[in-house]
Amino acid sequence: MTRRAMSATVITPLGAQVRRDIALGWRGRGQALVMLGFFLIIITLFPLATGPDEAQLRPIAIPVIWIAAMLASLAGFTRIFADDVRCGWVDQVALSPLPLALYALAKAVVHWALTALPMLVATPLMGLMLYLEPAGMPALLLALALGTMALTLLGLIGAALTEGARGGNGLLAVLVLPLAVPVLIFGVLASTPADGGIVTPHLMLLGAVLLVLLALAPLVAAMALAEAEAETGA
Amino acid sequence: MFDYLANPTRFMRLADRLLRPLTLLATGLLAAGLYYGLLASPPDYQQGETVRIMYVHVPAAWLASLGYVALGLCGLFYVVWRHPLADVALRAMAPVGAMFAFLTLVTGAFWGKPMWGAWWVWDARLTSMLILFFFYLGVIALANGFDQPERGSRPAALLALVGMINVPIVKFSVDWWNTLHQPASLIRSGGVSIDPAMLTPLLLMLAGTHCYFAVIVILRMKSILAERRIMTMQLRRAATAMPPDGGTG
After folding, report:
1. What is the DSSP string of A26-66?
2. Torsions phi, psi for B44 (to 5 deg)
3. Angle at Cα A35 formed by Cα A33 and Cα A41, nearest 5°?
């Protein structure tokens, strides 16, 4: 395919899709702030449950932050495709030269930027509140960045599969959380810096999971969306 | 062969022919396996009589794992080759596999209490089986999670496919997690080398539960196909019973 053809059929629509999602996402940024609030509240609940003792909180600080990020992200996944399916945008994309898989990928990227980035920004503060060492922050942030990207891709799959289903958030959680176990395991292990610096084998395994999901998730989401689109169109 | 079986009527006929021999085979193998396992085989020199739980636990674990691979294959057949009976097979197998996973966990708990002193430990194998059970629940929930009964077939097939790819990754990550968080006591169950006197009942039970799985899945597939046929007939009757100017409520 020539570069001009590629630009006309894929790059330009992709850019337009991303711009549209950013504009819509920014308009709905209250939702992202609600998710951030959820993130902060979950983290706050743990000291309330365990007691303010530093010796109790510091060992669980990293797992708590990770689980809070996972659960708060879950709250937003149902909305990835819901509006677009309802208003018929997905039908238009299916008819357009833009592949559904790239559309799904664009949605994932914008969703991550709008919902996960605020959590990443809030993480150092939350970590300090849970008595984490400031020197450990870069490792935690890098691992969380990759982990939330992987989680968003899993949420993409979950959202596309459950589009139109009853059971909403609960069903999506039951689908996504077992798939997210490797992300959680490798992510928590990668969040503590080792002697060799912040790039540990665990981080590389987390990156590997992310790459697998990057290849898999948009395709699966596209296949599931084609079904959802066909159904609402009928 | 799968093309031949794509016709539901042909499948039903073949299934009917296979059902009786398979049931007899399953009953016979399970009876023999249970006899040898519970009565005619020696107790373990370390574990004593409690080793006999192995004869139920190992086949259940094996079938739970195999069942998920089969589920993934059904998903593959449905999504890639659009085999008409693949989603019926998927819906038939999922609860059976889930039941075997649950059975594995329960019998594992019964085995664990006398062996390790705890009903549950978070070792790699148990945790993997628990997560596999959740995978099963997800497929079942998704397949039945839509108002239109058939709408859930494709998402469930996709999920089973994604799960089949992910289960090795999850298993690897749980093993990784377990070796790094070394538990206080090193757990080894079953042992690598097994006495021939124990091997026979184990193999009999394995073969018997495989046949049992096949019998149950065939029965469930038949009932799902019958359900669909009934629904079609009901819809057709409702459509033709309606007079052109409206209905009687």
Report:
1. HHTHHHHHHHHHHHHHHHHHHHHHH-S-HHHHHHHHHHHHH
2. -70, 145
3. 105
- Whether the model clears a pTM of 0.90, i.e. scores above it, the answer is no
Look up residue B243 and give its amino acid. P
Cα–Cα distance measured from residue B221 to residue B93, given in angstroms and rounded to the nearest whole number? 9
Structural domain range at position A170: 3-233
As for how many domains chain A has, the answer is: 1
Look at B158 and A223 and tell me if their CB atoms are within 8 Å: yes
Query: Is B245 inside a domain boundary?
Result: no
User: Which phi-psi region, left, alpha or beta, contains residue A167 (left: φ > 0; alpha: ψ -120 to 50)?
Assistant: left
Nearest to B57 by CA among B47, B69, B70: B47
Instruction: Please check the confidence at residue A8 and state whether its pLDDT lies above 80.
Output: no
Sequence-distant (6+) residues with CB within 8 A of B28 are B208
Q: What is the pLDDT of residues B136-154, one digit of tens each?
A: 999 999 999 888 888 889 9
Interface test with B, best of A62, A174, A186, A231 (most B CBs within 10 A): A174
* Residue B216: predicted pLDDT: 94
Look at residue B192 and tell me if it is in a domain.
no
Q: Is residue B233 part of a domain?
A: yes
Q: CB A216 to CB B165 under 8 A?
A: yes
- Assembly ipTM: 0.86
- Taking only the tens place, the pLDDT of each residue in B182-239 is 554 344 454 445 667 778 888 889 999 999 999 999 999 999 999 999 999 998 999 8
Mean predicted confidence (pLDDT) in A97-102? 90
Q: How many CB atoms are located within 10 Å of the residue A128 CB? A: 13
Mean pLDDT for the stretch of residues A114-125 = 94
- Selected for mutation to probe chain A from B81, B142, B178 (highest A CB count within 10 Å) is B142
Burial label for A185, CB within 10 Å (0-12, 13-18, 19+), is buried
Number of structural domains chain B divides into: 1
User: B74 is in which domain, residue-wise?
Assistant: 19-178+203-239
The pair of structure tokens assigned to B87 is 């989603």
Indicate whether B195 belongs to any domain.
Answer: no
B142: domain CATH number is: 1.20.120
> Tens of pLDDT along B103-134?
999 998 888 888 778 888 787 888 899 999 99
